[in-house]
Amino acid sequence: MERFDAIVIGAGAAGMFCAALAGQAGCRVLLLDNGKKPGRKILMSGGGRCNFTNLYVEPAAYLSQNPHFCKSALARYTQWDFIDLVGKHGIAWHEKTLGQLFCDDSAQQIVDMLVAECEKGNVTLRLRSEVLSVERNEEGYTLQLNGASVQAAKLVIASGGLSMPGLGASPFGYKVAEQFGLKVLPTRAGLVPFTLHKPLLEQLQTLSGVSVPSVITAEDGTVFRENLLFTHRGLSGPAILQISSYWQPGEFVSINLLPECELASFLDQQRDVHPNQSLKNTLAMQLPKRLVECLQQLGQIPDVTLKQLNAREQTTLVDTLTCWRVQPNGTEGYRTAEVTLGGVDTNELSSRTMEARNVPGLYFIGEVMDVTGWLGGYNFQWAWSSAAACAQAL
Ligand code: FDA
């Protein structure tokens, strides 16, 4: 039986980073993954350019039953630490929007960087490794793999969440948690497009591909100001992905399609100058033409000139465009979700080390636990920060 100081399961963002840091600190680390290559989600992320962190990382950007849990790890390994590391590897990056940092070239550079860091720490990386069983005894943890047994005093679970099963996602981490008596909070898809009920979906079909700036509000009062995209399945775009993490089935979201325009004053001004201009053409100065035409066909925009639009109709119109209440049918689910909400209950873990409070030597890092960030590099930063906190303790 091969022996290591620590075994890390999952060669994704958190697992690779944790293994590298622990290895560099002198730990003999085995890093296992069931896939053919490491960091598959990293390669897919940020449209192939990996949004690896965010300039404005703060605990408020994370959802967790215990909102304080993430604070310690985020404060001890910050976005600036990761930006330094990226710089040391000569990876050029840029800020796209809202503090989101992307590689100039390719997400492959982040994977290559993590592989190089693992090599620097003499980490043993085994791909295509299926973990058949995990047992705990006096010496630590014994794992049966396909064809071998391995043992270590410490075991780190970095197997991620359930989103994108096609990229190797599995419930493995939750099963290990349950095996050792840890509570797992219910999981659901996060950062995911909404699907719509039939009549509305059909009515909006012609808008597929149209994107508009928006302000979107969930029933709990959470607000995001980002772009909304109409799709052939429903609604997507950053505004929808963000609010999806705060949405529960059956709830409504409220959408302002004109966040940058004071619509009533705009219509009044236009009416003074061009009273005979059609309402449709006036609104097309502020909204995509296809959206205006679709709303007119649906009877939401009266077919009148500005001087014909009476005060009551104007109030209704402003309400429709700035406070559009939509009740999604559901979400596209784990198939397209970027993250999984819920997971291993953080009350079971130490926020300093990520170790299970009642199971010495067992650690959980990254997305497998109940910490989920906003869209925009926050989830990778949680992977790096939780991995660094854990690595210090190995
Ligand atoms: P991650 O999922 O990265 O890694 C888990 C690893 O464990 C995988 O390699 C998997 O193969 C392995 N594994 C699972 N079960 C196993 C088993 N039974 N045995 C062995 N190995 C097993 N975030 C962000 O901040 N910026 C971004 O740009 C994006 N973009 C993005 C795009 C897409 C398409 C997705 C799906 C997700 C994102 N994300 C993101 C989210 C981000 O990818 C995610 O939060 C992190 O990858 C989580 O890192 P982990 O290491 O915890 O899990």
SSE map:
Layout: E1 2-9, H1 13-24, E2 29-32, H2 40-44, E3 51-54, E4 62-63, H3 71-76, H4 79-88, E5 93-95, E6 100-103, H5 108-120, E7 124-126, E8 131-137, E9 140-145, E10 148-157, H6 172-179, E11 184-190, E12 194-195, H7 198-203, E13 211-218, E14 223-230, E15 234-236, H8 238-244, E16 253-256, H9 263-273, H10 279-283, H11 289-297, H12 311-322, E17 324-326, E18 330-331, E19 339-344, E20 362-364, E21 372-373, H13 378-393
Parallel strand pairs: 1-2, 1-10, 2-7, 10-20
Antiparallel strand pairs: 3-6, 4-21, 5-6, 8-9, 9-10, 11-19, 12-15, 12-18, 13-14, 13-16, 14-15, 16-17
Bound molecules: dihydroflavine-adenine dinucleotide.
Protein name: Flavoprotein, HI0933 family
Keywords: FAD, Flavoprotein
InterPro entries: BaiN-like (IPR004792), BaiN-like_dom_sf (IPR023166), FAD/NAD-bd_sf (IPR036188), RsdA/BaiN/AoA(So)-like_dom (IPR055178), RsdA/BaiN/AoA(So)_Rossmann (IPR057661)
